[in-house]
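The records we work with from here on pair a chain with its fold. Taken together, the tokens spell out the fold as the letters spell out the chain. To see the layout at work, look at the sequence and tokens printed below.
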Amino acid sequence: MKKKLLVALILCSSSVFAQKSAVLQAFKKYNVSEDVLNTNFKANLEKYAHEVQRTVTLNEKDKVYISNFNPNEPDSLKCTLVSVNGKSPSKGEQKAFVKEHDMKLDFKIDENTLKITKDDGTMLEVSYQYDPASLDKDHQFLKDCLYTLHIDAKTARLEKLTEINVKDLKIKILKVTKMATVINFKYIEKDKIYVPTDSAIEIIIRMLGNELPMLTSEKYTIK
């Protein structure tokens, strides 16, 4: 019995290693930098002064937040919420904004989940999941999401990242039946980094037997 278990573990480990090796070989084949495996491209924006326009759509009503980031300001003033629906933000909105932007995220990829899902010579797609051990208590639900990198094999550039939940999620007190994310990128040649240009997160919340859709979109403009 122990011998069979040992053999199974060896075969499993070999398969996982082969999947990761295949991903790295594909990167080499298309001259794709392993930088595409960065899990926090949004942090790259902090090298530049930029504006973020966030639109939250709930019950067919939009709420638009405008914020600015200036890397040359003191830490407490780098990121400021400018307006909400064209008006000065309330104290509650300011407090929520500060809390969100004080949150430091450092999620890591579970290398055992790296897998090529498409390689047709035009597009290279690589999927993965997060290492649960790297997720804080507020983001444990992300372990049940699958992420896919969409890479242009001709240019060797990352075009977008998509995310989809693989099972229903529990986000604090909410039951979420769908969470689908798309983040588009551009490559800044002089600095050799990717930055997001826009993103959209669609969430469907199940509440009292009903499904409530919510869409959060963001547009990032470097000044």
